[in-house]
Specification:
There is one protein chain. The two termini are about 15 Å apart. The chain is globular. Helices cover about 70% and strands about 0% of the residues. A hairpin with a 2-residue loop joins strand 1 and strand 2. The chain is mainly alpha-helical. Helix 5 packs antiparallel against helix 12.
């Protein structure tokens, strides 16, 4: 820590502040991993993406999860290198700005903010569904589960969840992490329990085959692109570990390690649960099949009872806990990115406000929560399948900002790529390949989503809602950029000089 001062969250020890006013060194590697897993929310992801992914790629769920993991892992190597050279909680915004200039930095930051804010609304939506499902199971009154279908009740409940998550987030990482240990542990135990129970049922719907791990068995590149977009969404969230780098002990190194461990742990969970669910239910569009339109957005709603019997209520509670935990931890990235953008002059100074007691970016956190709630309310009244449509649109946003960050890594380190084999792989080849893969998925999704039938089939003016949400938000960012250049000319006047030490080799 700075000046050799030992940082502690206890009031009896001195507290070190970062240049942005955050409390430095308040979490370690294990806590960062727990928050990373919490942000990804594996229980929520399994519930909401297994169905759409099975509809796209059939029994090749394990193959598509592995394919989705590969570009994520390659990009994560680039993130680690950028974090070591430029430890800044602005992550994508700061790194792309330093590599390509302020305009590209703004668009990268905008893509990251938009993705996080959209997924906050998605998480709240799933939390609402499982909240009323849990109440129905707890009381034995099935009619309570139907309350989630009422848009007014749904949006009002969503607002309550968002308020609770915002309150916890404002109180800081240390306080939130104590709750995260319990919620993450609970959902992982229940997912393992569900998988074991599904494997041990007497009459499997489909016999297991190693062919499920073969991506060449997927029918078309379009189907693979849909599956990859969903799979990439399923892994998305590990970069929150980098957003906490200024508040993590030895953040230049620890944050990158935490991101890597998080992605590997989540891959294991997805492979286990996807195989178990496929064996038990199959991938058909009727009955318990994962692609059944009636349960495609929430496979646990139909599978929990048959697989786990009386313990099904615990799986509903685990998914509810997963969404609630991720709501809180997902707010970390947009809040700290907006803080960094305000600190560097790309957003108004109001975004640099730090809570005087908790040392958190309270203003930015509240702004993210308000925008997410408004977005969710609009989508709930427009889309016939708001969760599936937002997940598909999110895949586009994630590919965009992860991809541009990967390319920024290659460009930023271009003068040191040939200094060693390690530099060539981790700073050049790996992020380049990861960025190209994400760019291909992004472009294919853009083309496919032009079809109004893509996603839920909801359309506005002849264009599919998924395209309008994904591409429209990026276009909106470009329009805001035009106005921002006029209002904050100092930031956009010239490319800044790099202020950080470039590490040629790890220490």
């Amino acid at each position: 820590m700075n000046g050799g001062t030992k940082t502690s969250t206890l009031s009896t020890s001195p507290v070190t502040k970062t240049g942005k006013g955050l409390t430095a060194g308040q979490i370690g590697l294990f806590t960062a991993i727990v928050i990373g897993v919490s942000t990804i929310a594996p229980s929520y992801v399994v519930a909401s993406t297994l169905g759409p992914t099975a509809e796209a790629v059939g029994t090749h769920l394990p193959a598509i999860f592995i394919l989705g993991f590969i570009p994520m892992f390659l990009v994560a190597l680039g993130y680690r290198e950028l974090n070591r050279a430029m430890p800044d909680n602005g992550t994508t915004f700061t790194w792309v700005w330093r590599a390509f200039g302020p305009r590209a930095g703004w668009m990268g930051g905008w893509g990251m903010l938009a993705a996080n804010i959209i997924v906050l609304s998605n998480l709240a939506g799933v939390a609402v569904d499982f909240f009323y499902l849990f109440l129905a199971q707890l009381t034995g009154k099935d009619s309570l589960a139907d309350l989630a279908a009422n848009p007014w009740i749904n949006v009002a409940t969503c607002l309550v969840f968002m308020l609770g998550a915002t309150w916890v987030s404002v109180r800081g990482l240390h306080a939130a992490s104590l709750l995260q240990y319990l919620l993450v542990g609970f959902q992982v135990v229940l997912l393992v329990w569900f998988s074991i129970a599904a494997f041990t049922k007497a009459a499997p719907a489909v016999d297991f085959s190693f062919e499920w791990f073969n991506p060449m068995g997927i029918d078309s590149f379009s189907a693979m692109a849909i599956g990859l977009s969903l799979s990439i969404f399923a892994f998305w969230g590990w970069d929150v570990c980098l957003s906490m780098n200024e508040e993590t002990k030895n953040g230049e190194r620890t944050s990158g390690l935490a991101a890597g461990f998080t992605a590997v742990i989540v891959l294991g969970i997805y492979l286990l649960t996807s195989v178990a669910a496929t064996v038990y239910a199959g991938v058909g569009d009727a009955g318990l099949g994962l692609a059944n339109p009636e349960s495609i957005g929430n496979v646990f709603a139909s599978l929990a009872g048959p697989v786990m019997g009386p313990a099904a209520i615990l799986l509903s509670l685990a998914t509810l806990a997963s969404c609630a935990a991720s709501l809180q931890s997902t707010m970390i990235s947009p809040a700290r990115s907006m803080l960094a953008m305000g600190h560097h002059g790309a957003l108004p100074a109001a975004f640099t406000r730090i809570h005087p007691k908790f040392g958190t970016p309270a203003f930015s956190t509240i702004v993210a929560a308000v925008i997410s709630t408004v977005f969710y309310a609009l989508m709930r009244f427009v889309s016939t399948n708001v969760l599936n449509d937002t997940i598909l649109a999110l895949g586009m946003m994630i590919c965009f900002y992860y991809g541009i960050t990967a390319f920024a890594c290659v460009w930023y380190f271009r003068h040191t790529l040939l200094a060693s084999p390690r530099n060539f792989i981790t700073r050049g080849l790996a992020p380049l390949l990861g960025g190209v893969a994400l760019a291909a998925v992004f472009l294919q999704t853009i083309v496919d989503s032009l079809d109004p039938a893509y996603g839920s089939g909801t359309e506005i003016g002849g264009l599919g809602l998924v395209f309008l949400v994904g591409a429209g938000i990026l276009l909106l960012g470009a329009l805001f950029l035009v106005g921002a250049r006029k209002r904050r000319g100092t930031f956009y006047a010239a490319r800044p000089e790099t202020k950080y030490v470039k590490l040629e080799e790890p220490s």
